């Protein structure tokens, strides 16, 4: 069935609107594509707010806005601000934006945020504890065991560990 003459303009408007909507959706979804999380490390936390009265988070947002250039994208790009232990933030950036940030005077380094896989082998053996050890939840609730892995071979220390006497105590 052929469309009548009166429906042709409406059909044209409908097709135009759908194509424009698809372009807007495509632009919106692609605006985030290519953006990857980067950690922006800025060193120690400032003693107080800066001279302009900005908080640490405000300074992160301001710095990000300078690099990105568009306020909406800058606000959507920030993932997390570190404000307790050190000064820095994580943001979804394009590579050239990461480069711009790394050139700023108050930025120590900018590097991609990558997922690391935990590598552990034979930790139980190193501690002399079998995997099938009997559990005691009352004691274990206040027990913290820390091992710093230097990457050295465990076999190097096996003889040394067997000669030492160790005791556990409740701290």
From TrEMBL:
Biological process, per Gene Ontology: proteolysis
Q: Which family does the record claim for this protein?
A: Belongs to the peptidase S8 family.
- One GO molecular function term? serine-type endopeptidase activity
Q: Look up the signal peptide feature and give its range.
A: 1-21
From which lineage does this chain's organism come? Eukaryota, Viridiplantae, Streptophyta, Embryophyta, Tracheophyta
Inhibitor I9 domain location, by residue? 38-119
Q: Which residues form a coiled coil?
A: none
Keyword Signal assigned: yes
Pfam families named in the record: Inhibitor_I9
Q: Which organism is it from?
A: Rhododendron simsii (Sims's rhododendron)
- The answer to whether keyword Signal applies is yes
Keyword list, A-Z: Signal
What name does the UniProt record give this protein? Inhibitor I9 domain-containing protein
């Amino acid at each position: 069935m052929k469309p009548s003459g009166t429906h042709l303009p409406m059909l044209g408007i409908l097709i135009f609107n759908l194509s424009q909507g698809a372009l807007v959706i495509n632009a919106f979804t692609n605006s985030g594509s290519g953006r990857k999380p980067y950690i922006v490390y800025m060193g120690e936390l400032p003693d107080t707010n800066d001279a302009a009265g900005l908080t640490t988070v405000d300074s992160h947002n301001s710095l990000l806005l300078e690099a990105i250039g568009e306020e909406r994208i800058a606000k959507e790009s920030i993932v997390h601000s570190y404000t307790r232990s050190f000064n820095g933030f994580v943001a979804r950036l394009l590579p050239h934006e990461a480069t711009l940030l790394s050139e700023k005077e108050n930025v120590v380094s900018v590097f991609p945020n990558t997922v690391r896989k935990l590598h552990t082998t034979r930790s139980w053996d190193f501690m002399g504890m079998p995997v099938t050890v009997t559990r005691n939840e009352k004691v274990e609730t206040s027990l913290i065991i820390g091992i710093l892995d230097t990457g050295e071979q465990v076999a190097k220390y096996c003889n040394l560990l067997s000669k030492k006497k160790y005791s556990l105590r409740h701290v």
